[in-house]
Amino acid sequence: MHAWDQKGSPPRKRSERLQIRDLRDGEETQVLALWRDLMDIHVSIDPRFALSEDSDQAFLSYLGTARSRDDYRVRVAARGSGLVGFVIACVLPNSPVYRTRFIGYINDICVAPNERNQGVGRRLVNDARAWLRGAGAASLEVYVSTMNPNAQRFWRNVGASDYLDRMTVPLSDEEGDDE
After folding, report:
1. Residue 134 is part of which domain span?
2. Cβ distance 9 to 113 under 8 Å?
3. H or E element: which one contains 109?
4. For 68-99, how does the pLDDT look when each residue is reduced to its tens digit (9 = 90+)?
5. pTM for the complete prediction?
6. Does residue 117 belong to any structural domain of this protein?
7. Does a structural domain hold residue 75?
8. Total domain count for the chain?
9. How many C-alpha atoms does 86 have within 13 Å on its Cβ side?
10. Residue 121 sits in a domain of what CATH number?
11. Which helix (H) or strand (E) is 36 found in, with range?
């Protein structure tokens, strides 16, 4: 079931211990459902996040590729048999003009709505941080939508600070052409 089909998630028993671990075979559809929830949020705040017709298959392909690479790490937060969050991190080479050779990057992180503000995201980030440090990254970078105050607050709470602004200029014929 996709996030947009749900009226509300049933509450999880808090007595079940949260476990941060590698994604297991057969759990990809649970990660996909969490990712769709994340994408629903993004699409609702900015139409530039509109998904392609084959977005589910593209994400699952990306997930499989990430799992097979040494420079990527896919981790999940699990309670009992259910996944309540995931993070995909990677180590990227920095431009050779900089002293810092490698940076860490979090491509995706998502926590189920009923698990937010419970420390799940922080645990996923801390797990990614430890792996990235061990893999030789000097810093952790992430893109955060300027129109998502909850995500902005989360990242600031885990120690992020402003570094660069990613800006966009539409390249359609209708805007800004002087020809």
Report:
1. 21-154
2. yes
3. strand 102-111
4. 999 999 999 999 889 999 999 999 999 999 99
5. 0.86
6. yes
7. yes
8. 1
9. 25
10. 3.40.630.30
11. helix 28-45
